[in-house]
């Protein structure tokens, strides 16, 4: 297999340590400055991903291929993003994969959009609704930067007023009032398709579940994911003091026909 080389204009994740990584675009003549000195990004052109580059102070950085989780957390944003721990669960619960057709509402900065687009390619499609033009513009730029814009159709509109797409595999919501979109989600889904919403407060969950139970849905369930990272060392293995606690509740259901 041919080794992939870094090209000008490509994104690179500069890895300093487990807590400090930086998403940068490689350009000739451009310098990236940190508290550990500056790196000449042009020196990465033609080198393989995974290579080492040193700052002017002699500090080593590793040039890695950005993963979707890196892009989701480090691309420009003006809204709170869904964390990778929740993204992975959402993709699994909604059974999103190659060829899936997915409606998303609440594009925001496009973090979840990135994960969905990456999962549905090469033949699937994400239809992403957003009511705020400034957020949509930011999301378009973030998805385009990742090279995934061919798999997303961005739509400016309020999903509580209707969904144009029909017979989709999943409807995934990250919005303030998901319960108002339940009737339209049911109309858009294929039989057996998945409704899923991400909500930061339990009051939103209660209203959403109540709406789901008034419509033909089954397997109505709500989850919360807690992630704890461990420090693994000889005779000193322990959980980290800081952890990602509550980020939101995930409510899922499946459409039935009667």
Characteristic key phrases:
about 260 residues, alpha/beta, Vcp-like ATPase, Chain A, domain 2, Rossmann fold, 2 domains, 7-stranded mixed beta sheet, 4-stranded antiparallel beta sheet, about 30% strand, globular
How would you characterize this protein structure?
The protein is α/β, with parallel strands linked by helices. The protein has helices at residues 68-74, 84-93, 111-120, 133-145, 182-188, 202-213; strands spanning 11-17, 20-25, 31-34, 37-40, 52-54, 60-64, 101-105, 125-130, 152-156, 168-173, 189-199, 217-223, 230-231, 238-239, 249-255. Helix 1 packs antiparallel against helix 3 (111-120). The relative contact order is 0.11. The model has no long low-confidence stretch (mean pLDDT 95).
List the helices and strands and how they pair.
Elements: E1 11-17, E2 20-25, E3 31-34, E4 37-40, E5 52-54, E6 60-64, H1 68-74, H2 84-93, E7 101-105, H3 111-120, E8 125-130, H4 133-145, E9 152-156, E10 168-173, H5 182-188, E11 189-199, H6 202-213, E12 217-223, E13 230-231, E14 238-239, E15 249-255
Parallel strand pairs: 7-8, 7-10, 8-9, 10-11
Antiparallel strand pairs: 1-2, 1-6, 3-4, 5-6, 11-15, 12-15, 13-14
Helix pairs in contact: 1-3
């Amino acid at each position: 297999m041919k080794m992939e080389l870094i090209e000008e204009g490509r994104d690179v994740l500069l890895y300093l340590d487990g807590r400090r990584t930086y998403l940068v675009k490689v350009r000739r003549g451009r310098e990236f400055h940190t508290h550990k000195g500056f790196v000449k990004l042009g020196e990465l052109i033609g080198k393989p991903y995974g290579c080492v580059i040193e700052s002017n102070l002699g500090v080593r950085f590793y040039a890695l291929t950005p993963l979707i989780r890196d892009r989701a957390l480090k691309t420009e944003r003006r809204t709170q993003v869904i964390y990778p721990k929740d993204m992975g669960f959402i993709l699994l619960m909604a059974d999103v994969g190659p060829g899936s057709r997915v409606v998303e509402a609440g594009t925001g900065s496009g973090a979840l959009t990135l994960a969905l687009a990456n999962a549905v390619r090469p033949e699937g499609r994400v239809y992403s609704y957003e009511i705020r033009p400034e957020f949509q513009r930011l999301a378009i730029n973030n998805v385009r930067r990742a090279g995934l814009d061919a798999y997303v159709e961005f739509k400016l509109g309020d999903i509580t007023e209707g969904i144009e797409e029909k017979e989709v595999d999943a409807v995934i919501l990250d919005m303030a009032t998901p319960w108002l979109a339940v009737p339209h989600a049911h109309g858009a889904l294929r039989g057996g398709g998945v409704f899923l919403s991400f909500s930061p407060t339990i009051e939103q969950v209660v209203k959403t579940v109540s709406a789901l139970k008034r419509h033909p849905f089954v397997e109505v369930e709500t989850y919360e994911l807690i992630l704890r990272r461990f420090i693994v060392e000889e005779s000193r293995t322990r959980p980290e003091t800081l952890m990602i606690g509550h980020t939101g509740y995930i409510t899922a259901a499946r459409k039935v026909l009667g």
